[in-house]
């Protein structure tokens, strides 16, 4: 097999997230976790939050200094957390930081944009 073909196969088999990071959770899985009582963390800005957020979510903006400390003040580190942002970029960063701080974290695939596109409710 040619090297290019091998590399192409490897690229398809390798997830786009880091090997030590779990894949983002799909909406259906997130809904089950919410029903089971997972903590919900929105890492967007206050202006984005006002446009709509998941019910029972807590807002801790990722871009603020001391993100992990603020999240620890809002969340129980012993309980799982579902984290989301607008489309998934910031929440992936937040999830990594929270995991490093000892949290069990699930990252909502596609963020609130995918959630709303699927017709799921938000509150304002």
Sequence-ordered SSE layout with sheet pairings:
Layout (H helix, E strand, L loop, with lengths): L2 H11 L13 H9 L3 E4 L3 H5 L6 E3 L7 H8 L6 E4 L4 H12 L4 E3 L3 H7 L7
Parallel strand pairs: 1-2, 1-3, 3-4
Task: Give an overview in words.
A 4-stranded parallel beta sheet has the order 2-1-3-4, with helices on both faces. The protein contains 6 helices and 4 strands. The protein has one domain: Rhodanese-like domain (Oxidized Rhodanese, domain 1). The protein is α/β, with parallel strands linked by helices. Strand 1, helix 3 and strand 2 form a beta-alpha-beta unit. The longest helix has 12 residues. About 12% of the residues have low confidence.
Could you write a compact summary of the structure shown?
The protein is of the alpha/beta class and 124 residues long. It has helices at residues 3-13, 27-35, 46-50, 67-74, 89-100, 111-117; strands spanning 39-42, 57-59, 81-84, 105-107.
CATH class group: Alpha Beta
Q: Given the C-alpha coordinates, what overall shape results?
A: globular
Helix content: 40-55%
| Element order: H for helix, E for strand | HHEHEHEHEH
Q: Give a quick account of the main beta sheet: strands, pairing sense, barrel closure.
A: 4 strands, parallel
Strand order of the largest sheet: 2-1-3-4
The CATH topology is given as: Oxidized Rhodanese, domain 1
Name the quaternary structure: single chain
Q: Please identify, by name, the CATH architecture.
A: 3-Layer(aba) Sandwich
CATH homologous superfamily heading: Rhodanese-like domain
Distance between the amino and carboxyl termini: 56 Å
Tally of separate helices? 6
Strand content bin: 5-15%
Structural Rg: 16 Å
- Give unreliable regions as ranges: 5-19
Keywords: Signal
InterPro entries: GlpE_sulfurtransferase (IPR050229), Rhodanese-like_dom (IPR001763), Rhodanese-like_dom_sf (IPR036873)
Protein name: Rhodanese-like domain-containing protein
């Amino acid at each position: 097999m040619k090297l290019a073909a091998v590399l192409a196969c490897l690229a398809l088999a390798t997830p786009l997230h880091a090997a030590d990071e779990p894949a983002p959770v799909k909406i259906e899985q997130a809904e089950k976790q919410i029903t089971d009582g997972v903590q919900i963390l929105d890492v967007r800005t206050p202006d984005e939050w006002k446009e709509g957020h998941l019910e029972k979510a807590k807002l801790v903006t990722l871009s603020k200094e001391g993100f992990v400390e603020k999240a620890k003040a809002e969340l129980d580190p012993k309980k799982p957390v579902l984290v989301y942002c607008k489309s998934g970029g910031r929440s992936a960063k937040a999830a990594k930081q929270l995991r490093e701080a000892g949290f069990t974290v699930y990252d909502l695939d596609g963020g609130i944009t995918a959630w709303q596109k699927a017709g799921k409710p938000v509150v304002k």
